[in-house]
Amino acid sequence: MQYEQEPYAKEFIEGMRKVARCDWCGRDTRTNRKGLCRHCNEVRKDLERVEKLTSDVAEPKTFMLDWRQRVARQKKEDCIVWGQMLRGILSGGVEPLALEHWFCMVSKRIARDSRMHYGTATMLGWTCTPAQRQMLAYFFWEIFGAQASHNRQSRAQWRVQCESLEERRDVHSASKTV
Length: 178
Ligand SMILES: [Zn+2]
What we know:
Elements (H helix, E strand, L loop, with lengths): L5 H13 L19 H18 L7 H29 L4 H16 L9 H7 L2 H21 L1 H26 L1
Helix pairs in contact: 1-6, 2-3, 3-6, 3-7, 4-5, 4-6
Bound molecules: zinc ion.
Zinc ion binds next to helix 2.
């Protein structure tokens, strides 16, 4: 009685496992022969173009070229991370704390209050069965995964910028200790 909705959630997850998906980002849109969706294929082509340029001996190794390469690699990495996240949701259990994290992400973006659902993990663990948690996490992943594809370029640039700053700081502190 307690878990009477459970079989439907389980069926839903099983159905989602069977859906054909992009090899990188995991979204269930149309894929090409390489198994990639349109978005990931653009990311792949962009990376291939820039890697070709960097391997060209005649091409001057400018700061801009290095920057482009790092951003392109970062974008590919980000696509793959979102796909791995989905596979984690579909293959294993979703911890109540992970579900709380998704709720916090929603409230932060919509209500601008990241603490609205802070501390609800225990309640989520009691009220949602493991399969229901998986189903909810899947829906959240769909929403945020789509958003991630919209702002992938700017997030990749931001990450590379942070990395460069850190590297500069390391070089600076290393030169101080020498
Ligand atoms: Zn994709």
